[in-house]
């Protein structure tokens, strides 16, 4: 995470193979999914981690 270069965290998930861009504002962008189910699976896996950092 280098906020001077890019204001978000780039998280590469291995299973499913999806890249998440996580911003300080709380916005999350998921890319690389082949089917909608992969998006749901990735978000279900990352949400508990993100929830722990809520302000």
From TrEMBL:
InterPro entries: TBP (IPR000814), TBP_CS (IPR030491), TBP_dom_sf (IPR012295)
Family according to the record: Belongs to the TBP family.
Alphabetic keyword roster: DNA-binding, Transcription
GO biological process terms, semicolon-separated: DNA-templated transcription initiation
Listed Pfam families: TBP (PF00352)
Name of protein: TATA-box-binding protein
Any one GO molecular-function label of the UniProt entry: DNA binding
Highest taxon listed in the record's lineage: Eukaryota
SUPFAM superfamilies on file: TATA-box binding protein-like (SSF55945)
